[in-house]
Design goal:
This protein has 109 residues and is α/β, with parallel strands linked by helices. The chain has three helices and five strands, in the order E-E-H-E-H-E-H-E. The radius of gyration is 14 Å and the shape is globular. 24% of the residues are buried.
Amino acid sequence: MDSYKPVSNMSMRRKNEAKQCTIFLEGQFDTVAAAQNGENLLAMLDSPLNAFVIDMGALTYLASAGIRILLLMLKKAKTSGKELQLRALQPMVRDVLEMTGMLQLFKIT
């Protein structure tokens, strides 16, 4: 019997600059993507940099599991004295964050 391993439809890359780390998300931040990428996203906040920007310009879908990871990242950033911003929100992603009341928690650039 073959085992089934879900495949994530989200890719991510990061760009470190002098004082800021930009994390680019592309695709669908769904349950599978959250499970496969959540720990890596949280670990990026362990960097000595103090400012983090999540660029969502190429993110086409955001599920509740993705929102949970974003909230965990925000909490970790705040407790570490770091700044976390969201950038380039697509209309659907912005609508999901607004409908869930999460948009107001984040700094949007």
